[in-house]
Amino acid sequence: MSKAVPAIILVRPQLGENIGKAARAMLNFGLDDLRLVAPRDGWPNPSAGPAASGADRVLQQARVFPTVAEAVADCAHVYATTVRKRGVTKPVMTPEQAAQTIHEQEGGVGILFGPERAGLETDDVALARTIITVPVNPEFSSLNLAQAVILVAYEWSKGQTLAQPTKVDMEPPAPQEELEAMIGHLENMLDKNGYFFPIPRIPTIKRTLRTLLTKPSWNSMEIRTLRGVLSTLEKPRHNAHKG
């Protein structure tokens, strides 16, 4: 069973910039089906392109519908994002729960996002089968349109194979014998220079030094480098100015 890829449906969006930012959020997380219901300033909107920051493909293939019902006509599953239930009794999910459900569903999926100023109207929510509510601070529950889209898109993307952060090839940690040799090397140098004093505290000082040196996962190259530094410091100092 192939995983459903939701359409992002912006209902009566007001600002072209917000449409562009929503498109950018969508493409970041692998979504490109953008639908606009009665955008206030018409479509295309010249302000959307710059705000999309390269997500032009999403804007170019965006479809415009006069009503929400027409925008979701091909969707077997419709979700409405809203902070309030608005008197409509429907299942309520977090973005994470909704994403998990969407991945298990067959057929078209549409996710409704309301206009910036007031959100979805009751009649809009009535067309949905499930409500998505973002758990936010009840004393300040103001999310802008692009933020709401990015939260939902991100949760959906967790079930997808998208580009992963570049893995840095790390050298394996050095064998314990190399680490012990480095610690012994340093202790010998410090002992010759009178570092371990007073005598009753020597075990504690050495233990603290060992703890410090064993915190990093030194690899062999790092240990060789540090021992090279120590060996250089051990050498007798020569006068740089030869007479």
Task: Write up this protein.
By secondary structure, the protein is α/β, with parallel strands linked by helices. The chain has 2 domains: 7-157, SPOUT methyltransferase, trefoil knot domain (Alpha/beta knot, 3-Layer(aba) Sandwich), CATH 3.40.1280; 176-234, no CATH class. It contains 10 helices and 7 strands. A 7-stranded parallel β-sheet has the order 3-2-1-6-4-7-5. The longest helix is centred in the C-terminal third of the chain and has 17 residues, at 176-192. The termini are far apart. Pfam families: SpoU_methylase. Homodimer. GO terms for molecular function: RNA binding; tRNA (cytidine(32)-2'-O)-methyltransferase activity; tRNA (cytidine(32)/uridine(32)-2'-O)-methyltransferase activity.
Largest sheet: 7 strands, parallel
Please, how many domains? 2
Terminal Cα separation, in Å? Answer: 85 Å
Number of helices: 10
Using the CA coordinates, give the radius of gyration.
Answer: 31 Å
| CATH homologous superfamily classification of the largest domain | SPOUT methyltransferase, trefoil knot domain
CATH arch. level architecture of the largest domain: 3-Layer(aba) Sandwich
Strand and helix order: EHEHHEHEEHEHEHHHH
User: What is the percent of helical residues?
Assistant: 40-55%
Low-pLDDT residue intervals, each spanning 5 or more residues: 239-243
Summarize model confidence as the mean pLDDT: 86
Question: Strands across the major sheet, in which order?
Answer: 3-2-1-6-4-7-5
InterPro entries: Alpha/beta_knot_MTases, RNA_MeTrfase_TrmJ/LasT, SpoU_MeTrfase, tRNA_m1G_MTases_N
GO molecular function, one term: tRNA (cytidine(32)/uridine(32)-2'-O)-methyltransferase activity
EC number: 2.1.1.200
Domain tRNA/rRNA methyltransferase SpoU type: 8-154
